[in-house]
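Deliverable D4.2, example record:
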Amino acid sequence: MQDFTYRNPTRIVFGKGTIARLKELISPEERVLITCGGGSIRKNGVYDQVQQALSRRDLLEFGGIQPNPLYETLMKAVKLVKQGRVTFLLAVGGGSVLDGTKFIAAAARFDGLDPWDILAKGAPVKAALPLGTVLTLPATGSESNGFAVISRQETGEKLAFGSEACYPQFAILDPAVTLSLPPSQVRNGIVDGFMHVLEQYITYRVNAPLQDRQAEAILKTLVEEGPKTLANSQDYDARANLVWSATQALNGWLGQGVPQDWSTHMIGHELTAFFGIAHAESLAIVMPSLFRHQMTRKRAKLAQFARRVWDVNEADDSKAAEIALARTEDFFHSLGMKTRLADYGIPAREAAARISARFRERGLKLGEHQAIDAGAAAEILATC
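Output generated by the structure prediction step:
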C-alpha cells in the first residue's frame, strides 16, 4: 500500500426526516444562499422542508443550475453572493447542483483575475465560502468530497477541479426524498457509483487488501440493490442502500494508498461536452473499450473483479477478465443503460477525431500509468 494523507471534514446526516436538522447545522447568524436546479425540489416537497427548517432565517435563492453546470450560469450566482453579502451556501439537489455550488464557493473568494483559471489552469483555491448539501439524487458522491466538474458553453469544455476548501461542512442524506426520481436518473446513479469504484479498483495490485474488499463490497451492493430500487421505486431500504453506496464510492476512502485511473471519466467528459449525452451514459460507453485496450495492465485486477464480485469460477486470468467485462456490460444493459456510441447516434470516427484532437492540444496523458494519450484515446473511441 502506498503512503497517503487523508482528511474528510464532511459530517453525514443520514435518514428520514433529516432535512429538519438544517436549523441546528447552520448558524442563525449566517446569510444563506440556497442553490438548486430546474425546480424539481418544489414538486417533491424538499423545498418546503428546507424553508420550514430555516424559517425566520436570512435567505436568498439561486436556481437554474444545469445538469452539466455551466460556468456562465454559476458566475451569475457569484455576482449574487458578492452583492448579497452571502456567508453560507446551501446546495439542494443532485451532483450538478453540488458541483456548481462548490465552484461558486471557490470563485466568490478567488483572488485572481478570472475564476475560470481554477479549471483551465489549475489555479489554487486558497479559500472558499462554507457550504452544506441536501442530496436529492444519489450518483456522484459530490456531497462528501471536494471535487467538481464544470462546463463552459462558450468554449465547449468540461473540466474538473478539487480543493480541500470546497468540502461540504455537512451532507444531509434522506433516501425518502429520492423516491420520486424517474427511472433514468436512478439508473444513471447506479452506473455512476459503480464506475467511481472501478476507477479506483481496476488498476494494479499494491497490497491493499482492505481497499480492495471495500471496493468489492460497494460493487456487490450496487449489483444486488440497484435492480431492486429500479423495480420498486418505493422500496425505501433498497434506495437507502443505493444512497449510501454512491456516497462511499467517492468520498475518498477507496482511493487512499492505491493507484487510481480516471481516464474513462476524462474521455467521458469530452463525449458530454461534444455530444450532450449524460455523464453516466458516457462512462458506460467508454469503460469496456478502454479496459480492453489496457487489458495487459489491468488483467490481474479484472480477473480479481470477476472472481470476487461476479463469482466467476475461472482459473485463467485472461478468460476471467473478459468474462468480468461481459458481465459488467450485461449488468448495465439489465438496468436499461446502453453501452455503444451508435446507440446514441454518435459516429465513432467523429468522436475519436474530435476528442483525440482536444487531448493532443492539451498534451494529456491519462490513466494510472499515464499510458493513454491522444492516439490511445482515438483507438479506444473507435471501438466504442
